[in-house]
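User: quick one - fold this with NDP bound?
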Amino acid sequence: MTAQVIDGKAFAATVRGKVADHVAKLKDEHGITPGLAVVLVGEDPASQVYVRSKGKQTVEVGMNSYEHKLPADTDEATLLALIEQLNNDPEVHGILVQLPLPKHLDEDLVINSITPSKDVDGFHISNVGLLGTGQKSMVPCTPLGCLMMLRDYHGSLSGMNAVVIGRSNIVGKPMAQLLLNDSCTVTIAHSRTKDLPEVVRRADIVVAAVGRPEMVPGEWIKEGATVIDVGINRIEKPEGGTRLVGDVDYASCVKVAGAITPVPGGVGPMTIACLLANTVTACCRANGLTEPQGLTA
Ligand code: NDP
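Assistant: Sure. Structure tokens for the protein plus NDP:
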């Protein structure tokens, strides 16, 4: 068996297209332009790349992009004052504080100072609680992207055995919650899990969010299972230079799985697309307007 490759790049383009259509409608029919504010503290090179990419894609779908770049030594009071200003700005419908923050800043405090309805990353404790109780919330972008691809491929996920490897607050836990909300039987595996291969072998759906290059081999995968690879790891090539790989060993998994996301070009492109989707959703909710279909959980 050779797995069907789930093309995250193409899927993300479709999501961005739906967002752009809805933004155009909001502008034409209501004179509203959704706005996303991104706050970057410091000069972390990877974060700078992400922020640039987010700003570019925000503008491409017709939304307003507001970038706030603060020096690495910004104190907490200054950052909280900026967030308060954005919370109160009616032109701003989504606020994202790029993580990680410099060590002297309290990430939990900062994230929880964002108004939950503008928290397009879905990390505020109120949104975590709403998701956990099956209520309408802002859903973290990476797991939302994974869920969209799974729903698109399978239709209903009801009754499927899902194993999520990784229990981080940004990927593993919200992913497990989303799968549970879609009536999967969910197992969350982590570094203390006993006999991980056996646990993974039971899964109809495997979501790997570990941060360990090519850790999951094909022999752990049940024939025909769907494999969603969240990992992004840069490794050295034998001939020199580097390349990106996921948390699953693609070469062996593609031979057993029913469907698989590649790295790059799988989950990665979906994350920013879902950020844009969350921003348009937040804008509609703020204005009491109908939300776009299929862009949220
Ligand atoms: P974290 O480091 O926060 O979490 C990793 C999780 O993996 C932890 O729960 C850890 O367990 C678990 N783990 C580590 N080693 C093992 C092991 N040997 N066996 C089983 N479980 C293990 O990572 P993130 O969730 O933030 O990210 C995971 C991956 O996803 C990374 O490669 C990251 O780059 C990528 N990523 C990709 C995104 C995208 O847009 N595509 C977005 C976000 C992340 P424990 O809790 O016990 O320590």
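One thing worth noting: The pocket of NDP is lined by residues 142, 165-168, 170-172, 189-193, 196, 209-212, 230-233, 247, 267-268, 271 (CB under 6 Å).
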